Please model this.
Amino acid sequence: MVQELLSKRKKLAVLGLGYVGLPIALEFARKISVIGFDINKKRVDLMKQHIDPSNELEAKDFDGTDIEFTADVEDLKKASFYIVAVPTPVDNHNVPDLKPVLSASETIGKVIKKGDYVVFESTVYPGCTEDDCLPVIERLSGLKAGTDFKIGYSPERINPGDKEHTITKIKKVVSGCDAESLDVVAKTYEIIVTAGTHKASSIKVAEAAKIIENTQRDLNIALMNELSQIFDLMGINTYEVLEAAGTKWNFLKFYPGLVGGHCIGVDPYYLTYKALALGYNPNVILAGRRINDEMGAHVARKLVQQLIKLNKQVANTKVLVMGATFKENVSDIRNSKVVDVIDELKRYSVLTEITDPLADADEFHHEYGINLRNDFGKDYDAVIVAVNHEQFSNLDDTFFKTILKKDGIVVDVKGDLRNKIKSFSYWSL
Model:
């Protein structure tokens, strides 16, 4: 299989061309022939013009690639190695939504043939690939996994906005349904991954490894968020405490903040869902999720308290929120916890305006029903720096004097403005 891919006698297909799938597809397309498939024709048309709809890649990243972008399922029949990189979100009740990955399985079931390979990269709970996705492929194709085709799992490790830890530089965890498939999957990814591969003993182990990577980060950030609330009651600055503790060689450097996006804020729910289904109550993981999910409302309530202390009529105040994406220096608005801050302020009848240099205003309004402004107003009672984009990196007293009232408040979620604000009331996590 690998030599046939390298000689371009066979093609590799990537299903799902979002922030995970497109970089993978383009990286492979520098070495082998690739079919990039997405169900969204508008996105496909943009990629044909060398435009990344996720705004992560530049036009030059498409240069020198052998790739066919398509939304036509029939085109997938030309492939022999399939990589599934579709989203795996949760619903409004934090229950895993498997519709995208099961739909991708149905698509593969309609095009797969004997001798083909299927590798899932989407984050799922241990057992999902073999127990939920594989039966769909077998049912629609009439083929048997292990005998007629091979299946594997290799968790994505894409970090949006990170230009240093890219696909080729991060060791790739791989797995297969048997020894032969494990070897082929590993060698296929080694075509592009210079950091090498780690062969997991089973598909379930690889699935579990992915899900605990983000669960571990989620819990560590939850601890920082809880500590920030405790230290706030004590009148201690959290970042000064972390700076002092960080002088010890084995202190892990995590920081408080809003935990959104489609990984850390979502993946742990896949693990807790499976644990609960097995009769185990994952107390620690769910406690961390609860703390992190409540941080947006906490930030808003702290601001309201500050407004009251300054004898302001809360319902008559105007607040600017700077940043709307789920993290700094990305345009992705999915599961943005800034929205939780805005929603809580609205409950107090605070007039809230939001600006973000990277977020798409139409997309944000469609997703959350909230308008973005493309500039700064004046006479705000408070400003919340919610997302630390590079465009906000040089904020200081001089800037805030142009938009804040004299008795204004600066809320600095990530603490980047510590010791820079002298003329206004200041608060951070």
User: Anything to note?
Assistant: The longest strand covers residues 404-412. Residues 232-261+294-428 form a domain with the Rossmann fold fold (CATH 3.40.50.720).
